[in-house]
Specification:
Strand order of the largest sheet: 1-2-3-4-5-6-8-7
Bound molecules: coenzyme A
Largest sheet: 8 strands, mixed
Shape: globular
Helix content: 25-40%
Low-confidence stretches: 1-8
Structural class: alpha+beta
Distance between the termini: 53 Å
Radius of gyration: 18 Å
């Protein structure tokens, strides 16, 4: 018998060491998991209600592509695409839930292995739930996942200088400021400068206990 046939699929790891199974991550109050097709109604509701709040901070969506917020098939294709990215280790996109309600997303994009072992963190939250520190919890949880499970070496967050709400996330988590990247990303149709903040696995190991206590522990 082949050595493959009697092994549980869970035992097979991605060649880069990344787990293939859908992750479930927890902060003190939030939970994160990949979105699936039955999340369409929740996705549609939260994205349509937050169009003005989010559009100014996101890449412009092509008018030739169906909108996953209004088109169920497009949302299902988005879920499949995100699953493929996770399985090939290039990106990890997780829905952010509070009390089992979808309130946003936190992701690691642009995962590069080889000599770099890096990824870029992104996030958004429903305006109705803003100001409660939920995204900082989600970012702390995904940092832990990236260093402890994915074994990445460096993570970065890139922020338009005028996005003061987003800058509060990296300030609260005390990520290291690296500098300004000019015309770095296309946001809402414009090549925008971005401030770059980073953390490496060495810093995570030094700060793991404090970050875990502050953001990932359930407070009574
Ligand atoms: C940036 C963002 C993810 C922060 O998430 P959050 O969970 O609200 O973060 P926090 O609770 O830590 O709040 C951050 C700051 O937002 C501001 N804020 C709080 N509540 C707010 C509200 N209801 N509306 C507007 N701003 C608010 C406050 O200045 C707060 O700082 P403080 O805690 O020192 O008072 C969220 O503002 C968002 O989704 N913005 C639109 C998308 C975006 O900018 N994504 C990031 C691109 S880099």
């Amino acid at each position: 018998m082949s050595h493959l046939s009697n092994s549980s699929p869970k035992r097979f790891l991605h060649p880069a060491g990344a787990p293939v199974a859908p992750p479930r991550l927890y902060g003190g109050r939030i939970m994160m998991r990949p979105l699936v097709s039955h999340d369409f109604e929740a996705w549609s509701e939260v994205r349509l209600r937050n169009v003005e709040w989010l559009t100014v901070w996101e890449p412009r969506r092509s008018e030739f592509l169906a909108d996953p917020a209004t088109d169920r098939d497009a949302f299902e294709r988005r879920c499949v695409a995100r699953d493929r990215e996770r399985q090939n280790g290039s990106a990890y996109t997780l829905g952010l839930f509070f009390n089992n309600i979808l309130i946003g997303e936190v992701n690691i994009n642009n995962v590069v292995r080889g000599a770099m072992q890096t990824g870029t963190i992104g996030y958004w939250i429903d305006r109705k739930h803003a100001g409660n520190g939920y995204v900082a919890e989600g970012v702390a949880a995904i940092i832990k996942f990236a260093f402890d499970e994915l074994k990445l070496h460096r993570l970065e967050v890139c922020i338009i200088p005028r996005n003061s709400n987003s800058k509060r996330i990296v300030e609260k988590l005390n990520l290291r400021f690296e500098g300004l990247a000019e015309r770095f990303l296309e946001i809402n149709g414009v090549w925008e400068d971005h401030l770059r903040y980073a953390i490496t696995t060495e810093e995570w190991h030094e700060r793991r206990d404090a970050l875990t206590h502050e953001w990932l522990t359930i407070k009574k």
